Every structure is written in C-alpha cells, then in structure tokens.
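Good day; I would like, with your permission, to put a structural problem before you. What I wish to show you is a protein chain and, alongside it, a tokenised description of its three-dimensional fold. I would ask you to consider whether the tokens describe a fold that such a sequence might reasonably adopt. You will find the record immediately after this paragraph:
***
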Amino acid sequence: NSACNMADEEDIPKEDSDAEESSSSSGNVSSESEEDVPGPTPHRPSVQQDESQKHKESMQEQDTIDEPPAKKAKSEPDPLSTRTGGAYIPPAKLRMMQQQIEDKSSATYQRIAWEALKKSIVGLINKVNTSNVAVIVQELIQENIIRGRGLLIRSLLNAQSASPTFTHVYAGLVAVINTKFPQNGELLLRRLIRQFRRAFRRNNKSLCLSSTNFMAHLVNQQVAHEVLALEVLTLLLETPTDDSVEIAVAFLKECGLKLTEVTARGVHFVFERMRGILTDAAVDKRVQYMIDVLFAIRKDKFKDHPSVIPELDLVEESEQVTHLLTLEDEGDPEEQLNVFKFDPEYLENEEKYKTIKADILGEGESEGSSGEEGETEDEDEDEHQMTEITDETQTNIMGLRRTVYLTIMSSVDYEECAHKMLKMQLKPGQEVCKDIANLLCVECGILLISLKFVS
C-alpha cells in the first residue's frame, strides 16, 4: 500500500507540469502571431449574413420568374357589330358612345342610332293602353318610323301575340299611324296575312286565333277591307272542324257588327253556313253551343261586342286609308327591314323625316313669334314662303276610283249605293271630276250581269 501511494504522488506533479508547459507554449505562439501581423485584422461577414443575402437574391429571382409575361391585348369584338346587336348596353353609355363619334354618317353611328330606335319603339309599344294612345302616337312619330317600320310592325305583332286582350288598343294605334304612314299599315296586313296562312297550314290554333283577332279589329278600324274578313270566314267554314268553327265564331264576335253595317248580305251567307253546320251536327257539342251563343249575340245586334269603343275612335272615317288585300295576295313581307342596313344617304333621309315630322306635329307654327331680333328680311321671307306641290302620280284619282268601286261592290241595292255615294268626302275639284262618271259607266257595264240593282 505504501508503495502505491508513493506512485500516485509522483504522477500528480507531472500532470501539472505538463499543463503549465502547454499554456506557456500557447502563449508563445500567440505572441509570435501578434508580432507577425502589423495592424488590426479586417472584418469578415458572418455565415448568417451570407445566407440572408443569398435568400434575398433567390426571392427576387423567384418574383421575376413568377411574373407572367405581358399578354397581348385580345381584340374584343364590337358589341354593336354582331349579328344580333350584341350584349345589352345601358342607354347612358349608348348616348356617350354616340356623342364621341364625329362622323354622323358612319356605319358605327348608324348602328348605335338603330339600337336606340329599336329600344325606343319596343318600349313605347309596351306602354300603350286605352288612355294614352294619342300620347304614344306622338312619341312614335318623334322617332323615325319610316326607317324603322319593320321594327314597329314586328313589335306590334309580338305584343299582340303575347297579350291578345289589348288587341283593340294595338289596332287603334295602327289606325292612327295608318292615316299618316299608309305603307306601315299595308306592311302590317301583309305580314299578318302571311302569319295566318302559315298557322292555318300547320294547324296552329293559338296563332290562328291571335291573327284573326287582330284582323277583325283592323277591319273594325277600316284599315283592312271587309273582303279580307269574308275570305277568312269562307276558308274557315269550307271544311268545318271543331277548331276552325271555333276560330270563325270568335272572329265573328269581334267584327260581326261592322260586317253587318258594311256588307249585310255577306254576313247573312256566313250565318246560313253556320246554321247548316249546326243542323248537320258535324262538330262537337261544345262547338254547337258556341254557335247557338253566336246566334243569340246576333239577335241582340252585338250589343256587348261593339266594333270600336269610344276611347279608341280617334280617326275620322273620311281620313282613314283602307287597304284592299286578300288572302291570295303574295305580298313581300320585307323581312329585311327588321335588321340593320347601312344607309349611304343617312343624313339626307333624316332631314327629310324631320320635315315630315314637323308637318305632322306642327312644330314650326310658333317659330315666327319666338324668332331672334337679328334675323334678316331674306330669312323671314324664306320661312313664310309657301311651296306648291303638284301631284303627277294621279294618286288621288286612283284612290277615288278604288273608293267608288268598293262602294258599288259592298252595296246591297241601288238605294244603299246612292246613299253611300252621296256620303263620300270629296276633295275640292273632285265634285265635277269626269272620272266618277266614266268609272260608273264602266263598272255598271261590267257588273250588269252579276248585280241586278245596277240596271
């Protein structure tokens, strides 16, 4: 044991001496390094700063990569140049687009004006009722219904098909417009006849009912001639079916009073045909009951079915223009008027319509009293100068001949014919017109065999 303890005591001072030697050696090394470097050592960036800078650079590169390249602006189609007029454009934006166009005769300006005209006409037709027909007519005349007559007729037909209860209102509106623009009334009749014929061939009962209802009220307003009504009744009763007889009964309820006043003999033949159908029992019991009700209405002289109500009696009989169109007439419906078409003479036509509108509405009557003081005498003379218009087309004479012919054909006997001839409203200079005497002689010679009262 004593020997081991002595060995441990000898090892301890050796370790201490080794530690002292190592420390002294390190001190010598540091002193030598300090002696070799003459000045302070430069500052070196730490590892964390290097990593943050690299991270920032990588983020910037990623941002530049994520940014999509500038896309080429796609040329969106013009909403006004599409076939159907494009998407809906608010009226304020439409007016702003119209004001920004300097060339008033360009196709873009005409397209915008066409869209505005279409929206205005549709809106006015949808607002019409019994109490505001006169106001709506004035607002329609403010628009160019010569250029937009296709839009006007299409709006009327669509509105009448959608709400048949307002058919008499639409007919009254057409009657007023027809006195100033007869081409619009004629176009409406052509399209209505074409619509009825197509619906009759396809056995479309609802469309036939709406078409004949419109025709009946146009006959009541004397826009359509009674010959058209008799042809429709003849076609419906030629081969009677439940649907055709029902349509004929509804048609007679609407215009039976007017037909009785104008052509009593034709109405008598129609009711005799109805009586034969009722006797033969060729139709259903329900339709037979409808025929019985029709005879009761005729017995009461159509008391509950007036031809024209007082609120819609807006046109004098002498001013109305009656169109003699039949079911066999293959008239052009002019469907191209429903779509936009570029007009190279747009500005001239608009000025012409402004003149026509001023003549109809009387907008230039009060211009003299509210004129400016600085007007010259030459301008005053130009305003009050009257232009005499000479009719070289003999339109008035042809209209007079047509009226005389229709009067002869629609009369039952000579007394009725003479009475109608005396009630004719003749214009100045037509009282001694030789055409009346010549036409009477020619028609009486042609119709001597068919009409006994002529002789």
